[in-house]
Predict the structure.
Amino acid sequence: MVELKVVVAGAGGRMGAANIRAVAARSSLSLHGAVAHSAGMTLHAAIDRSDTAAIGQDAGLFAGIAALGLAITDDIDAALIGADVVIDFTAPQASVALAGKAAALGLAHIIGTTGCSEADDAAIAHSARSGARIVKSGNFSMGMVVLANLVEKAAAALPDYDIEILEMHHNRKVDAPSGTALLLGEAAARGREISLKSHSVRVRDGHIGQREAGSIGFATLRGGTVVGDHSVILAGSGERLELNHRAEDRSIFANGAARAALWAAGQAPGLYSMIDVLGL
């Protein structure tokens, strides 16, 4: 069995722990010789910022599984030596820096970081052109990828319907709208053959007048421990179509990221999405 050597970035966070569990579940030790798997992965390193309390802890124990004999470290350069792929759910600045390192080393880089600016996205795209195999997505859930595909088709089929996107996440999320909401907005915009940037409405407050035809609205809710709820509403005259997705466990994102890592390992350098991974 060929095993990818995976570095999990942001290992001290909740998504980092989920990613560690997903990688460990796909190792040869966990598969018990199952012949159905032609490729697996092994945790090569787990990294995070130096000020994170997880530094020095066993990555497996921190993630709530058996000890892996591998301590979470802040030595990023050393961690990347000999690696094949980085799974990265961190922050924009960290992801941009990791993309540059992935390009220099010819690694695959799976980016689930949200809140990236246009400049961040441009830097990541440059790294993809410079040798990295990058899969970047606002959401790695298989169900969400299918939902985005449906949203694009619905937006095209119902050109006169108003589109509103509602999302809710836990009270610790720092960016808004969520990366997933923007992913769905981009899907709707593709269906309408318009630019999301010039048609999105992010804030409504006070006397704003009538809704502008053709706009794509976003509403953001934050509270509690919600993993992620998203609804796309297409409102027409006399009827309303709602397409919903509710994430109940972070493992769906980690499993999707692991799938993307296995897929990206065999691709040429470039910037890909989960649409590419699933062949949609």
